[in-house]
Each structure stands twice: as structure tokens, then as C-alpha cells.
Amino acid sequence: LPFEYYRNEGVKNEISAYAKALYKWDRYEFFGDLQVRSIQYQSTVQKANPDENPVFDKKYSFFNPKVGVNYHLDSGVVYLSYANAHREPGRSDLKENTDIKPEQLHDFELGYHYNLGNLNMSANLYYMLYKDQLVVTGELNEVGAALHKNVGESYRRGLEVAVGYRFSDQINVKTNLNFSQNKNVDYKI
């Protein structure tokens, strides 16, 4: 190997704050979550030639809100939600490519959950719109760890259906089915 991977030094500092609110009115539940994250990565990797020792110092600040509403019917709950989330690249990804970007997700969901005694069923429509999604490309680093790359814009959309039945306290059977379409809109090799 061109360097001793286990002799590198790295520090990750993270500060986060989270708040959640729930307001009930008649059959409605309105909710909101707010998360703020601040992350700093600092690392050096020792290579055989000291002039080639990569150093990175990356800082990220994220605001991750989620809002939605639940409507309680006699037969179950209908819900609608929107969330915006971010994910930073991992240290091994930054070691290989210091220009890699964090991913951003806009998640829209509409669903229905039904309970009838020991039977429960749910259906969920979702649309997940990504910007700079971090995906595994099949490439490996020097020690065999999978590397990620940004793919620009991409999305996932589909329908999830789940059914469960509780036969007793010891036996609970669950199954689910997912129909989805997952596309990278503008990724070019």
C-alpha cells in the first residue's frame, strides 16, 4: 500500500439541537420537527512521502425541518408530511475526494394506516427528491471500503404497502410490498 491507513489522525466535532411540536385540534394532529446540525471534520493521512499527506478541514451546517398533519378517521389515520434532510460525506469519502458535497433530500409522503383488532395495514405514497445524492459506485479505496460519489439530481418514488397480524403475544406476522422507481436524472460517467 502507498501509505499506512491506520496511522492517520481525524477528529469529528458535531453540535446539534432538536425541537418538536405537536398540536391537536378535533381529529387533526399538526406536527413539526426542527433540527440544526453543525459538523467539522479535520483529518490528515500519513503517506510514505510527507509532501503527499492529504489534509482536510470541512465544515457543514444543516437545517432539517419536518412538517405534517395526521387526520384521525374512525377506521384509521391519514397523514401527509414533508421533510428536508441533509447527510454529510463520510471521512473515507473526504479522504479520497475533498470536493465531495453533502446530499440534500426533499421527502413528500401521503399515507393511510388502519387497525382492526389484531390486524393492521398501511399504505404510503412517497416522492424523495435528492440533490447531490451520495451513492456507492462500485469503486473501492486502498483498504477495500466502498466509495461514494455525488450523482447530481435523482429521485425515488413509489408505494409501500404493509400488513401485519398479531396471533398472540409471542407470534406476530408482518409482510410488506414496495413498488418503486429510482432514477439518477443527470449523472454522467
Describe this structure in words.
- With 189 residues, this protein is mainly β.
- It is built from one helix and ten strands; from the N terminus they run E-E-E-E-H-E-E-E-E-E-E.
- It has an eight-stranded antiparallel sheet with strand order 1-2-3-4-5-6-9-10.
- The longest helix is centred in the middle third of the chain and has 6 residues.
Radius of gyration: 22 Å
* Order of strands across the main sheet: 1-2-3-4-5-6-9-10
Largest sheet: 8 strands, antiparallel
So what's the oligomer here?
single chain
Instruction: Report the count of strand segments.
Output: 10
Q: Alpha-carbon distance between the termini?
A: 27 Å
| SS-based class | mainly beta
Enumerate how many helices there are, as a single number: 1
- What percent of residues are in strands? over 45%
Query: pLDDT under 50 segments (min length 5)?
Result: none
N-to-C series of helices and strands = EEEEHEEEEEE
Shape: elongated
Roughly how much helix do the residues carry, as a percent range? Answer: under 10%
- Rounded mean pLDDT score: 89
